[in-house]
From TrEMBL:
<feature type="transmembrane region" description="Helical">
    <location>
        <begin position="372"/>
        <end position="394"/>
    </location>
</feature>
<protein>
    <submittedName>
        <fullName>MFS transporter</fullName>
    </submittedName>
</protein>
<feature type="transmembrane region" description="Helical">
    <location>
        <begin position="34"/>
        <end position="57"/>
    </location>
</feature>
<keyword id="KW-0472">Membrane</keyword>
<dbReference type="InterPro" id="IPR020846">
    <property type="entry name" value="MFS_dom"/>
</dbReference>
<feature type="transmembrane region" description="Helical">
    <location>
        <begin position="206"/>
        <end position="224"/>
    </location>
</feature>
<keyword id="KW-0813">Transport</keyword>
<feature type="transmembrane region" description="Helical">
    <location>
        <begin position="124"/>
        <end position="145"/>
    </location>
</feature>
<keyword id="KW-0812">Transmembrane</keyword>
<dbReference type="GO" id="GO:0016020">
    <property type="term" value="C:membrane"/>
</dbReference>
<keyword id="KW-1133">Transmembrane helix</keyword>
<dbReference type="Pfam" id="PF07690">
    <property type="entry name" value="MFS_1"/>
</dbReference>
<feature type="transmembrane region" description="Helical">
    <location>
        <begin position="151"/>
        <end position="173"/>
    </location>
</feature>
<feature type="domain" description="Major facilitator superfamily (MFS) profile">
    <location>
        <begin position="1"/>
        <end position="399"/>
    </location>
</feature>
<feature type="transmembrane region" description="Helical">
    <location>
        <begin position="244"/>
        <end position="263"/>
    </location>
</feature>
<feature type="transmembrane region" description="Helical">
    <location>
        <begin position="275"/>
        <end position="295"/>
    </location>
</feature>
<feature type="transmembrane region" description="Helical">
    <location>
        <begin position="301"/>
        <end position="318"/>
    </location>
</feature>
């Protein structure tokens, strides 16, 4: 159920991506405005609201918070279909961001209370496949519905079912005991945000990891949010064709990569926790060179084939990152720790990735014309490459940090 809710989170977040070309034509928008709409404006409220909601989740019923948040973001997605201008759409997206801020941190904390430490990489990875299940559904529904009924109906078709799911979730999901695997003694004190930050401040591996995931997301959102536009402009796809193709490439391949990241980390990391950081580092080393044929070749079949493996490589980091983050803090700090991680991840990734790609595309346009977007997306991919070094630095610091007393439970 948590994974399904997370899928709706990303259906509602990514539906705009598949619809941005028809919206751009109707409203006369620039690529920079699209980047602001799908990235920075959403991310700003998403990350700002995420920390206080996570603080609340560490103190109260997390299931209820998720059900309420799902109602809000689904309702605002449906309202997006009524937008008459850019400002209306921007305000609706801000509302979606506020609602979605209440989704992931409480869910992460619940999962860590459902599963012991040696299973959390896989559990978090399975949950995180909701990202790509949502992308898959969003691309299919958005592409097909938009082509036949228009982009406004597409917003209604994904927003209204989310409100119904919120009721089902509230009635069927049970709140797990907090700190189930670590002992009830750790549940007594409810730490403040300042205490959580103070605890994390002494663990440099967490901050290296957080910056690394931010740069991974920078590439993912920067290129991913413009993938439909890239295929339509440079490879002649229709909006319906893009929806079906990216459902497979961005959705299914992303699910495979996300699951494999956590699964492999759990299998090889029980004897050496640094594998939780080495796995995304190795994947990043594979993703950078794959970006060149994906973005620069004109053979559509080759481009789509490469993009499948590129999507797998780019999406291995989230499960291991969440498992490590929750392993170094007490149970009562987990929702806040997730919110801090997601604050930086989404500020860099979701906030700056699409906006940077859009600005670069507009800047490159006088020189490269229709190819401006492909070079903008390639630049974004190259700018994310320091994430590899940061994962390795985090791995180098991790044993010492764990030895200071913040331990992960053994297998």
């Amino acid at each position: 159920m948590l994974t399904l809710v997370y899928a709706f989170n990303f259906v509602d977040r990514q539906i705009l991506v598949i619809l941005q070309e028809p919206i751009k034509l109707e409203m006369g928008l620039s690529d920079a405005q699209l980047g602001l709409l799908s990235g920075f404006s959403f991310a700003l409220v998403y990350i700002t609201a995420g920390i206080p909601i996570a603080w609340w989740a560490d103190r109260t019923n997390r299931r209820n918070i998720i059900a309420g948040a799902l109602t809000v973001w689904s309702g605002m997605t449906a309202l997006s279909g009524l937008a008459q201008n850019y400002t209306h759409l921007l305000l609706a997206r801000i509302g979606v961001g506020i609602g979605e801020a209440g989704g992931s941190p409480p869910a992460h904390a619940m999962i860590s209370d459902y599963y012991p430490a040696h299973q959390r990489g896989t559990a978090m990875a399975i949950y995180s496949t909701g990202v790509h299940l949502g992308i898959l559904l969003g691309f299919i529904v958005g592409g097909v519905v938009s082509q036949y009924f228009g982009w406004r109906v597409a917003f209604f078709s994904v927003g209204i079912p989310g409100i119904l799911l919120a009721l089902v979730f509230f009635l069927t999901v049970q709140e797990p005991p907090r700190g189930r695997w670590e002992g009830a003694v750790q549940q007594v004190h409810k730490p403040t945000l300042a205490e959580t930050l103070k605890t994390l401040s002494g663990y440099r591996s967490f901050w290296y990891l957080t910056l690394a995931t931010g740069l991974s997301a920078f590439a993912g959102y920067g290129s991913g949010n413009f993938a439909p536009s890239f295929l339509m402009r440079n490879h002649g796809f229709t909006v319906g064709e893009v929806g079906l193709v990216l459902a497979f490439v961005g959705g299914f391949a992303g699910m495979v990569g996300t699951f494999l990241g956590g699964f492999i980390a759990d299998r090889v990391g029980h004897s050496d926790r640094r594998w939780y950081l080495w796995v995304p580092a190795i994947s990043g080393m594979l993703a950078i060179p794959l970006s060149f044929p994906y973005l620069l070749l004109d053979n559509t079949a080759v481009v789509l084939g490469v993009s499948f493996f590129l999507s797998i490589a780019m999406n291995t980091y989230l499960g291991p990152a969440l498992a490590i983050s929750h392993g170094i803090v007490p149970p009562a700090m987990r929702a806040q720790t997730s919110a801090i991680l997601f604050f930086i991840l989404n500020l860099i990734g979701l906030g700056l990735g699409p906006l940077t790609a859009g600005l670069l595309s507009d800047w490159y346009q006088p020189r490269f014309g229709e190819d401006s977007l492909r070079y903008a997306m390639l630049t974004v991919a190259l700018l994310s490459s320091p994430s590899i070094v940061l994962y390795l630095l985090a791995a180098r610091r991790l044993p010492g940090d764990l030895a200071q007393g913040l331990e992960m439970s053994p297998r």
